[in-house]
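Inputs:
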Amino acid sequence: MNTHTIPHTSAKDTVVRQQHALQDPKWVRWSLITIALGFITLFICLPLGLVIYQALSKGIEAYWAALTQADTLAAIRLTLLVAIVTVPLNTLFGITAAWAITRFEFKGKSFLTTLIDLPFSVSPVISGFIFVLLFGAEGWFGKLLATYDIKIIFSAPGIILATLFVTFPFVARQLIPLMQEMGHQEEEAALSLGASGWKTFYSVTLPNIKWALLYGVLLCNARAMGEFGAVSVVSGHIRGLTNTLPLNVEVNYNDYDVVGAFASASILAGLAIVTLVLKTLLEWKQTSR
Amino acid sequence: MSHKSVMPGFRPTIGLTVLYLGLVVLIPLSTLVFESFKLSWDDYVHIITSKRVLSSFQVSFFAALIAAAVASVFGFITAWVLVRYSFFGKNIFHALIDLPFALPTAVAGIVLATIFQPSGFLGRLLNEFFGLQIAFKPIGIVIALIFISIPFVVRTVEPVLLEFESAMEEAGASLGATRLQVFTKIIFPNISPALLTGFALAFARGVGEYGSVIFIAGNIPYVSEIVPLLIVIKLEQYDIQGATAIALTMLVISFLLLLIINLLQFWVRKRSGQL
C-alpha cells in the first residue's frame, strides 16, 4: 500500500520546508548585508574618513599649525575645564540618585525617574536658552549679577551650567536599571555583619556597578566635551575666551578656514572613536560578568 | 507594620538628588514656563502663527518625519543583519552604529555639509548624474537627521530581535508557513512596537536637533530654517518674547512625544513579557 511510503517522504519534505521557513534565502541574506553595510558606510564611515582627509588636505604642517593656534589651544583648555567640572558632579549625582531610587521604596519614585531623564528630551537650544533667561543681562538674576560684576552668560560658568543640564541623566540612567536588577541582598548581608554604610557601598556595591558606572561616565564625558547647541546659545562665541572645541569648529568653518575647522573636528572625532572603543570593551566586560 | 529598610542613607541621598535635580534641571526649565506668563494669549498666538514660525515648524517636523522613516527602514535592516547574520568585520560595524551618539553634532554638521555641497564628494556625483542638489535645501536637513536617527532605531530594535524566541518561528514553520509568512506574520508584528519606539525616539530627537543640521540646511527663512535655529535667531535679535513662545511650544511638543514614547516602551515590555 501506498500509505507506508507517503508519511516517510512527506516527513522529510516537511523538515526541508521548515528549514527553509527558518532561514533567509542566500540572495536575501546577501542583499540585506549589502544594503546595511552600504548604508552604514555612506552615513558613518564616509563622514569619519572625511574628517581626517579634510584636516590633512593642506598637509600635516598646516594641520599642526591649526591645532597649535592660540584660539584652538584655548578651546581645548575650556573644553577640558567644562568636562572636569561637569563629569564628576553628574557622576556623584548619578550614584546618589541611583542609590535613593533603587534601594528604597517611596512615593513618586517613577515620577522622579522620569524627571531625571527630562534633559534628554529637551532641544539643546532650549537647554541653553533657559540659562539665558535666568542669568542673561535681561534675565531674572541679570541685574543682581551685574551689580556684583559676576558674568555667567557669555562666560565659562554659563557653559558649565548648560553642559551640566545636558549631561545630567547619563550616569544615573546607566546605574538605575542595573542596581534595580541586582537587588540588595548582598548589601544587606554586609550591613548585618556590621559593615558601615560607606564600607558596604565601597566594598559591595561599587565592585558590582563599576563597569556600568564607567560606561555612564564615558558617555557623560563624550557629551560634555562635544555639546554644541546648548553651549552655543550661552557662549557668545568669543574667540580664545568662550569657545569650546565644538564652537571652534563652527567659528572656523564659518570663516572658510577649512583646515582649522577640521583640525578641531579631528580631535573631537578622535574622542568619539576612543569613546566607541572603550564603550565596546565595557560592553564586553558587562556581558561577561 | 511599616516596612523599614535596613539600608542606610535614604535621607541624604534622596535629599541630595532632589536638591540637585531642582537646581540643575527643574528651576532652569521652569523659568521658561514663568517667562511665558509675561506673554498674553494674543501675543503668543500672534508669534506662533506668523508665517516664518509656522514654516519653520513645518520644515522641522517634515524633515524629522522623513528622516525617522528612512532611518527606520535601514535601521531595521541593519539591526537584522547584525543580529541574524555573521560576516567579516561585523564587530566593527556594530561598534560604529553608535558613532552619531559619540560624534559631536557640530562635527557631523560640517562633515555632511562638506560631502553634500555642490563641490563635495557626493554632492558633485549626485549633481552630475541626477541633477540633484542636497546641501542648502530641505533635503539636506533630512540627510543630517538620518545620520542622527540611525542609532536610535538600531539600538531599540536590536535587543528585541536578540531576545526574540526562535521557538515562535519554529512553531510557525512546523505549521507549514513559508519564510515570508514567518517574517510578516510572526517576526515583524513582534518587532514592530520596538521599531515604532525607535522611530518615535528618532523623530523626537530630530525635531530638536540643531548642530548637525545648521551647516547643511542653508537656513533660508520659509524654506530650510528649522525651529531651534529660529529660537537662536530671535535670541540674537533680543526678541526674548518670540524666543520664549517658540521654545515653550517646542518644549510642550517634546513632552508629549516623551509621553508617547514612554507608553510605547511600556507596550514593548508588556508584549515581550517583561511586565
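The CA atoms of residues 53 and 270 of chain A lie 13 Å apart. Flag for discussion at group meeting.
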